[in-house]
Amino acid sequence: MYVKSAKELDVYKLAYKQAIEIFDISKNFPEEEKYSLTNQIRRSSRSVCANLREAWSKRRYIAHFISKITDCDGENSETETWIDFAKDCKYISTTDYKKLSKNNKLIGQKLGTMIKKADKFCGIIDD
């Protein structure tokens, strides 16, 4: 199957859904967290998607593609850290924590596969 847009990738769909869920959950964070935890977790979760789309546009060159997917993975790892803080500060339920952590891990696995198999995504592009 030919994938024309990054938005068609399973990892993009999962990361986008995760970012929306984090946005919804973080609406209930305390006001004093507005410019710290709330802002950081929203920004890093959204950056996974943004960097994935940027990587997709750079797939003519495998090194650029891998670099941007690595950035995605870094943002995903940062999001995981903020999820841990949200749980330990008791801003999210154990159920939400488990769901977000599971999704975060799956996103990381999918990004890792993209890095390992970058040649499957890169090369000459027919626009």
Order of helices and strands: HHHH
* Estimated radius of gyration: 15 Å
Tell me what portion of residues adopts beta-strand conformation.
under 5%
Any guess at the CATH architecture? Up-down Bundle
The number of domains is: 1
CATH names the topology as de novo design (two linked rop proteins)
Instruction: Quickly count the helices.
Output: 4
Structural category:
mainly alpha
The helicity comes to over 70%
Mind describing the biggest β-sheet? Answer: none
| First-to-last CA distance | 15 Å
CATH class: Mainly Alpha
Label the overall shape.
elongated
Average pLDDT: 94
CATH superfamily: 23S rRNA-intervening sequence
Counted beta strands: 0
- Uncertain segments are none
Q: What would your notes on this structure say?
A:
The chain is mainly α and 127 residues long. The protein has one domain (6-120): 23S rRNA-intervening sequence (de novo design (two linked rop proteins)), CATH 1.20.1440. Helices cover 72% and strands 0% of the residues. The chain contains 4 helices and no strands. The longest helix has 27 residues, at 62-88. The chain is elongated. The two termini are 15 Å apart. 28% of the residues are buried. The model has no long low-confidence stretch (mean pLDDT 94).
